[in-house]
Amino acid sequence: MTVLGIVYPTTQELLTPNRDWVLTHDNSGRLAGALWQEADERHSLSTLYREDEAYFYGFYGQAFSKRDNTEINQNDLREITLKGPSLLTAKFWGRYLFVCFDKVAKKFICCCDPSNQWAIYWSWSERHGLLFSDSITCLHQALKDLGESPTWNASFFTTWLRTGSIQSGEMPFERISELPPGCAIFYTHGHQPEMLPVWNPLASATKELASQNPYEILKNYLSLQMTSHERPVLELSGGLESSSVLLALRAVAPAQQRIACAHYYNSAVGSSNELEHARRVAQSAGAQLGEIDTDVLSFAPVKHLPRVAKPHIRYCLLAFNQHFASRLEERENSVLISGHGGDSLFLAPPPFGVLADAMLTLRWRHLFRIALDLALIRRTSLTHIAWQAFKAAFSADPSEGVSGAFGLMSREAELKPLDGRSHLHPFMQKTKLRLPGKLYQLFLAYLSLDDVRTPAYPFKKGTHYPFLCQPMVEFALSIPSYRHFDGPHNRIIVRQSVSEATGYTHLWRRNKGETSGIDLLGIRQHKEHVMAHCLDGFLVKQGYIDPIKTRTAIQESCKGRSEYFMDILHLYAAELFIQGWQ
Hints:
The protein is an alpha+beta fold and about 575 residues long. It folds into 3 domains: about 1-200, Glutamine Phosphoribosylpyrophosphate, subunit 1, domain 1 (4-Layer Sandwich), CATH 3.60.20.10; about 205-345 and about 445-510, Rossmann fold; about 515-580, no CATH class. It is built from 23 helices and 19 strands.
């Protein structure tokens, strides 16, 4: 559904009669808030409202008890209203949006699920009050209707081009923010709103959680979240995560239910073709595999540019994903299931900081074995491993090294300072934890959760991400970082769990397809298109980008040189995002 909310409005302009508003007033009789909702295909219309003399609250979506999977009820919501949204994230998981008005204290609280399946965007000014919506286009239009059309946020683009990810809530539009996963908006009338974490993923990742089983968590998610009327299709690469989801889906689905999978590949590029692995696991699970051989490469021209909340590096695949979605919709598949996120949560490959974690937690007897395993996986020397671990122990930024410096920026834009932690999640900025491997794991978890906000696939009903549900994230973080690999195998926790439960041995394969070559081939095949977007776009005209450096980078990439690829990818994604709104 689409939800639009107004908190303590200073003007009645948006309260038009063509919308069916739900209104609530505080104890002084002043209008405290107005809520409007409209059904769509992406979210459930399930809604719980309750109002008394002291409180008004609304709950959209579904949430289940972590203890026994019972669905949240009115009594639970009443307790959460009294004690705060931290209780909601501590006791329940799901896909939801929660709003609460304290009519006596004139306070408002809004939060959504930590798995980021329900986005919230908000804006505040003394003129119009606090506006929020789960649709960026709805909120953007509401501000335009008030005569306050948002302008571009220059600091966002300079930071995003350098880092590739902004998880702090900053948006490409001035005066619009997003609610990061596990955070809530707290607003008291007469004051400015605050955005604070209400989910402590490290405190939730208790030692008791470490005894759980990722395969059982997958089955639990699929049995509770997949409704009988949905026609899901699993994106099946044949890798560890998608294979695990398929085996879990087979375990919870009725024996007679047909399970649909889809595998896409380019038969002309052998290095990226993993079809044999997808066929093997589909046959083992008795699933129907749709094989989509497509010649749509990265950076292909896009027929329709969607309006999304912010740029995403997977925008280079937007044309391909639109083609993929149209092929699936021809087969009447309405919901996609993706294994995305598992590789980040279970560290593949692990960072050098895990050796520092073992040292700082006094795991002295295991240091040599951990160092040997790291050297085996990274194919480097023990001396290099030890030096990188030492540097990681003193690093202030867990994202350091994930995204390198952006090399296409103009000299004027480079002079603007960049706070190395400003783009991190609010919880990451405030946590006192100093275990570099664990912080890197948490950074990747937030990075994967942030991916959910910008759909890679233009499916009408969205995508299920079983590996990014709250119980799975908390379980992954409960495991010490140095236990996620063993010998030549990474993501060992998932491999062992699924293999022992299903007997499927192919999860232990070590060969994997490679995609960097096909991405560079896309730049070469669509050189003129990439040139036009990157050299004639908004960012060059505004002076952010050096056109000479950019032209050289594209020309060299067409020759197969990969050192410029990430810079071109960031620039192309930002320009495509901007064009979607112009």
